[in-house]
Amino acid sequence: xxxxxxxxxxxxxxxxxxxxxxxxxxxxxxxxxxxxxxxxxxxxxxxxxxxxxxxxxxxxxxxxxxxxxxxxxxxxxxxxxxxxxxxxxxxxxxxxxxxxxxxxxxxxxxxxxxxxxxxxxxxxxxxxxxxxxxxxxxxxxxxxxxxxxxxxxxxxxxxxxxxxxxxxxxxxxxxxxxxxxxxxxxxxxxxxxxxxxxxxx
Length: 201
Fold this sequence. Notes:
By secondary structure, the protein is of the alpha/beta class.
């Protein structure tokens, strides 16, 4: 490659595309993560929070949040010339969970974003992917002002299996998010290979 273009005489590479879900609780940073890393203008389906939703939208821990995803976020990132990820951010509130089944169709894997101030908010996402045998990593979004805990303590609090990667990240930072996405691709490929081996033996 020279300046990002294929070398003369070499045919262009047809990239492999994978679908990755970004899930987690309300206000954990899913829309921010997709926007931080997407090389296209992200598709967002956000609506303003209203008084009507106050009884069901728990704003504790996210007092500055004024909008919420009602369908999905969508973005794209090219990790290598031959590898492109399509990112689908899921809605966080329980009343929109019916959309998760459709969004998860054909997904290679998922990122479950967690906020240490409200770890219980990501239990549903962890349970969802475990029940459907969709490989996932947990990304602990390190918010400013939030207490920092050892990863082993967070893993224990979430009751994660030993083989589920747990990574610290900043959903606002492109390079930090890229590392999480690379982590989920690696984990998903290893998980799928191990599952195939178990089935054939």
